[in-house]
Amino acid sequence: MDALFFVISKLLHFLIEPLNWVIIFVILSLLFLSLRKPLLCKRFLIFALIDLVIVGWLPASEGLLQVLEERVPSAELASISEKDVAGIIILGGAIRSGKIGPERGEVSLGASAERVTKAFELMRKYPDLPFLFSGYSDRLALEGISEADAFKQLVKEQGFEGRPGFYENQSRNTYENVIYMKPIMIQASQGSAAKPWLLITSARHMYRSTLIFRKQGLEVIPVPVDYLTGLGLSWDSFDLEVGAQHWNKLIHEIVGLFAYWITGKI
């Protein structure tokens, strides 16, 4: 059932992403052109143009992303001591899957690399806390090594090999992250289940993540990273590449929130 949920969520994400509709509108316009229906051809070309404007005009996506990123404020780490928390959680999503990294003997980080850099920062700040990395792959078919195995390689390269840590390498989405981590968190707490864990993930992803942890009766302290928006909006900015990336991440979260809500996961 979870596997079917994973596939459907990927398909739904693809179907409602605005940039994909540009291709659909162009194909339909060509179809109607071949059928000698110029009016319908023009209409779908106009739809494609409007779609491109919506994707490229950055405030259209930035405004919604900003709401998500500010939904859960960051914790004041300066006021949190090591004895106040049980450990550090790092959610996968920053490490590029595929064969290139393993074939080159390197770990490739993606646009969400701050999840990894913040993890190492906190591991240095709280040297006695255990860490828990969760992530297998978000691809339908895994290529290369899992994110957890890649992070294990990074831990070794950064000199944290002797640090107490745990790796969860089965999850493919946020819900599975939490479900598979829950027994590890309870075991690692060693009777300190009341203590929260520091949670590192992208700011736009923090709201959905904390809702799932709360549903499972687990307390976390949010440490959002990887912000895509500032405090204001770029009203005069137009960039198709950046806009497409923003919409991709925004739709991913919207689909995730809706799918988890309708299935009772949050």
Question: CATH topology of the largest domain, what is it called?
Answer: Rossmann fold
Taking the alpha carbons of the first and last residues, their distance comes to 17 Å
Overall outline: elongated
Following the backbone from N to C, one meets helices and strands in this order, namely HHHHEHHEHEHEHEH
Proportion of residues in extended strands = 5-15%
Count of individual helical segments: 10
Oligomer: single chain
User: What is the count of distinct domains?
Assistant: 2
Low-confidence stretches: none
CATH level-four homologous superfamily name of the largest domain: HUPs
Helical percentage: 40-55%
Short description:
This protein is of the alpha/beta class and 266 residues long.
Furnish the topology, listing elements before pairings:
Elements: H1 2-16, H2 18-34, H3 38-56, H4 58-69, E1 87-91, H5 100-104, H6 114-125, E2 131-134, H7 147-157, E3 165-168, H8 174-189, E4 197-202, H9 203-215, E5 220-225, H10 240-262
Parallel strand pairs: 1-2, 1-4, 2-3, 4-5
Helix pairs in contact: 1-10, 2-3, 3-10, 4-9, 4-10
What does this structure look like?
- The protein is an alpha/beta fold and 266 residues long.
- The protein is built from 10 helices and 5 strands, in the order ααααβααβαβαβαβα.
- A 5-stranded parallel beta sheet has the order 3-2-1-4-5, sandwiched between helices.
- It is elongated.
- It starts with a helix and ends with a helix.
- The mean pLDDT is 88.
